[in-house]
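Problem 12. The chain below contains 99 residues. Write out its predicted structure in token notation.
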Amino acid sequence: MAEGRALAAEHGIRLLVEAADALAGQPGRAAPAATAQGAPLTEREEQVLALIEQGLSNKQIGERLYISAKTASVHVSSILRKVGASTRTEAVYLARTPS
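Solution.
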């Protein structure tokens, strides 16, 4: 698992690094953080948020996650709503800032 974490860190895949850290630190899946609306982001929304953080467009997010650009757009809209943001940049900031 350490090799996988190191490889993810080397390639800037923060979501995988966090998942590896969560698995190493405690058994079971780490609970997602609550958002401004009280509803936690889903695992897929966390993946989309990580790609938004890298500056990817909906089309690029779709290509990375093997989903359509429209489906990526739906996930982005859900993230914006859940964190109470009006822009993608604000969503990343609000989702990553501890409450």
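Discussion. The first helix runs from residue 2 to 10. Students who got a different answer should revisit the alignment rule from Section 12.3.
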